[in-house]
Amino acid sequence: MDLAALQKLIGSERDGAMLRLTLARAHLQQQQADAAIEQLQQALAFDPDYTAAWQLLGQVHADQGHTDAALQAWQQGLAASARRGDQQTGKMLQVFIRRLQKP
Prior knowledge:
The protein is mainly alpha-helical. It is 76% helix and 0% strand. The chain has six helices and no strands. The longest helix is centred in the C-terminal third of the chain and has 18 residues, at 67-84. The protein is globular, with a radius of gyration of 14 Å. The chain starts with a helix and ends with a helix. The relative contact order is 0.12. The model has no long low-confidence stretch (mean pLDDT 95).
């Protein structure tokens, strides 16, 4: 993914949750976790029920050692998956939450 090309789309008619998720993934490929988190938060501002963004946001936080933030993101993603009827993502997030809460 060409990060510069994607960034040019910010503010255009193509800007939205999916673009921001794609930007977050591009930032992660560049080892830019903080920028990825910012883009995921923007994705969720566009669509608070975007379960893929909640899932990735939790993963980035977990990878950074931010356990509480990861847990919060995944719990919000779980609620979003229930609202959307996205059972598969809900099951996956439950597994992530259980693993994170293991002593």
